[in-house]
Fold this protein.
Amino acid sequence: MACNRRNPRPATVFNNAYQHINVYGDDVEVDYRGYEVTVENFIRLLTGRHPKSLPRSKRLLTDDGSNILVYMTGHGGNGFLKFQDSEEISNVELADAFEQMFQKRRYHEILFVVDTCQAASLYEKFYSPNILAVASSLVGEDSLSHHVDPSIGVYIIDRYTYYALEFLEKVTPTNRRTVGEFLRVCPKYQCISSVGKRLDLFGRVPDIVPITDFFGSVRNVEISTDFINLTVKGKPLRHAEMVTKASSSSEPFKYADLFPVHLYVDQK
């Protein structure tokens, strides 16, 4: 959307027609875009089944201590979500991908959020532990858009995502907002549809889980005042030795030769 030629404000994506919040921001990193966004690449990203040549920036480098947020939105139906209007991912494929992640110890907890028609059908087949799922609509219900932007002539945000973003914009790393509060976002008088939740796979009580466990990139750091002795081949390595070894083993840097542009610039 940010780079679409119909966008009158290139490199921006706003939450409403009044352009209050640019959700694309200066710090957004997009690792997959355009036709790279396929069902196969999404499943490979979750399960870690990549060719060796794939760069680290396109991998999900998580382990059994990682909390993962999976947010999906788009056109969908009973048991599926469309990708690029040319293929779709099913609830069975999602469930099996999360089970592979669990078996390979690629997550600690997952918060799965989906905003589409009949969204609750996408988490019905989940069977892996430590997954908390929330959906913008129940099976048989449509998820509705919030408002249209007349400058581009389309609806720019769905109701559930609009109110979820409104809640999250008030979250700071120091406040005590919980996942339980997030699950109560967008009651039926706002969403028109009924927000669905699945709590049976999750091992904690949502009302005592900080929302920053999944949003805000807050990480607990343990500070130690003890000295840590590094060893090489079983022998302690002192600080002076580390500095000497580091300085002696490093090779001097030099500039590469300039490309001979003058030999090619005039050729046709």
